[in-house]
Backbone:
């Protein structure tokens, strides 16, 4: 009796499993990339929030100092003192968030140094105000220095907003690519499995028919 070829069951099992494993790897890579970009967007949101808070604190410092120098009323120093207590923590958090961006780190270092000098001078004026404190030239110089710091802080926040927009756009494109790629891959996988299944069924039927034919002889 002629030995009949058996259906290739390995092809029916190993190939689909290999394709499914490849699909899982692709999906894992895509989801990891999306997760990293989402975290980058979250970090950019935090940079924007802390930058805006620093700008607010600088305004509070300048407003409180000006009010005190004009009136000598300690009540006006409250916003100055509150802002002063929060400044270091805000700068520290921003340094942590932009640690991977050398240019922005250098910008933040320069801004912190400028603010430190401004604060030292402000504290000297509070403890021992000079006759020049109320002069127009002095007040204009102080305003220009504070405006310069706020301008640097605005540019810093603008960079964070741009970084956020670009990262979000890349994330949306990656999401679309993963979605459409997964759908296309799933369709191809379904077609491949259907073809392999039909082929296997035909081989089984053919083998069964030949076996029955030999038994009937």
Residues:
């Amino acid at each position: 009796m002629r030995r009949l070829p058996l259906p290739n069951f390995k092809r029916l099992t190993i190939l689909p499993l290999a394709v499914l494993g490849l699909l899982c790897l692709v999906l894992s890579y895509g989801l990891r990339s999306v997760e990293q970009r989402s975290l980058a967007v979250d970090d950019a949101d935090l940079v924007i929030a802390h930058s805006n808070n620093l700008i607010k604190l600088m305004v509070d410092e300048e407003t409180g100092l000006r009010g005190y120098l004009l009136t000598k009323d300690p009540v006006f120093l409250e916003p100055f003192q509150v802002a002063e207590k929060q400044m270091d923590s805000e700068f520290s958090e921003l340094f942590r968030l932009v640690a991977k961006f050398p240019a922005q780190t250098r910008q933040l270092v320069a801004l912190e140094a400028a603010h430190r000098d401004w604060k030292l001078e402000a504290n000297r004026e509070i403890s021992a105000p000079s006759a020049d404190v109320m002069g127009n030239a002095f007040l204009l110089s102080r305003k220009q220095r504070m405006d310069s710091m706020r301008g640097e802080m605005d540019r810093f926040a603008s960079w964070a907003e741009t970084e956020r927009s670009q990262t979000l756009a890349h994330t949306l494109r990656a999401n679309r690519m993963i979605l459409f790629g997964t759908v296309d891959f799933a369709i191809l996988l379904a077609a491949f499995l259907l073809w392999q299944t039909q082929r296997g069924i035909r081989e089984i039927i053919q083998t069964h028919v030949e076996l029955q034919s030999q038994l009937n002889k």
